[in-house]
Write a structure and sequence with these properties.
Layout: H1 24-35
């Protein structure tokens, strides 16, 4: 059976690292670009620096 309608799906991309050598901005931007076809109007970025859990 073939579907004759477009299914909309969401996508989530994330990265967690403690390495200073990785270019987080480039990795996140690349991940968002790969998800871009899923909908340009719902994109956001959260960046936390020196977050510690106690």
């Amino acid at each position: 059976m073939f579907l004759n309608f477009h299914l909309q799906m969401c996508g989530i991309f994330g990265i967690i690292t403690n390495q200073d050598t990785i270019s987080v901005g480039k990795v996140v931007f690349g991940g968002i670009k790969r998800l871009e076809y899923r909908g340009y109007d719902s994109c956001g970025i959260v960046y936390l620096f020196n977050l510690s859990y106690t």
